[in-house]
Amino acid sequence: MGLIVQDKQFVIPGDELATGIDYLPANGAYREDDKIYAAQLGLVNISGRLIRVVNLSGRYIPKAGDNVIGKITNIGFNGWMVDIGYAYEAALSLKEATSDFIERGSDLTKYFDFGEVIVAKIVNVTRSKMIDLSMKGPGLRKLKGGKIIEVSSSKVPRVIGKQGSMISLIKEATGCQITVGQNGKVWMLGSDFNKEMLAAAAILKIEQEAHTSGLTEKIDVFLRGSIK
Q: Cα(181)–Cα(199) distance, rounded to whole angstroms?
């Protein structure tokens, strides 16, 4: 009972990762009875009790200066660990999380709790793949509510468009707030579920047709035809 694979091990769909209830499946993994299996081809990432499989297809490579969307996965004495969709989790220190003075032993969940989603900037990536985040800067914040979808990080420039033209088109047509992370995670918040779903459909259409010409016009027609 327990782990069957090692951290950073290459797996294919259907590979058994763990048995028993000591571990929980995360992105790219699923449970069937008392076993956890890989749902996609990639590298195993083990963080505490969580097992995920990081997709190698069009995978995101972190670099300093990127704004990314991530989920809080762990809280320590000195800060938070954040899943940004890479084989290695990123670290958000107390110093880079807030300007507040935080006494030793304070309840850090008052700032960021398990499972909460944030927009943060990568400020450093070391040779050993340690990734440091910061919450200090315009647009960096906790994201509340809404919907998150994922696209290939290589398609992010097409989703944003030249000078933000494509994402502005979707925002105007749906009325949704939309934030695109360089790691391929896209957060949207609309006045109702249908508008969020329309924004998501448009973004996924961009990903699928990113190689085609006249894409802005196609998305404009798609949005106009979908709005009633």
A: 15
Residue 34: CA count within 13 A, CB half-sphere: 6
CB 122 within 8 A of CB 133: yes
62-71 burial, b at 16+ Cβ within 10 Å, e below that, comes to beeebbbbbb
CB 150 within 8 A of CB 185: yes
**Distance set, CA 174 to CA 46, 123, 161, 208 (Å):** 38, 33, 17, 20
From residue 190, alpha-carbon distances to 63, 156, 165, 172, 204 in Å are: 30, 21, 19, 11, 17
Q: pTM for the complete prediction? A: 0.75
Judge residue 228's burial from the number of C-beta atoms within 10 Å of its C-beta, 0-12 exposed, 13-18 middle, 19 or more buried. Answer: exposed
- Which residue from 183, 118, 112, 195 is spatially nearest to 151, judged by alpha carbons? 183
Per run of 10 residues, the mean pLDDT along the chain (length 228 residues) is: 87 93 89 92 86 77 96 94 92 94 86 97 93 97 95 92 96 98 97 94 93 92 86
Residue with tokens 């995360």: 26
Helices of type H across 162-214:
165-174, 193-208
Q: Which residue has the tokens 């190689």?
A: 211
Give me the domains of the chain, ranges plus CATH numbers: 2-55 (2.40.50.100), 67-143 (2.40.50.140), 147-226 (3.30.1370.10)
Number of H helices, E strands in the chain: 5, 17
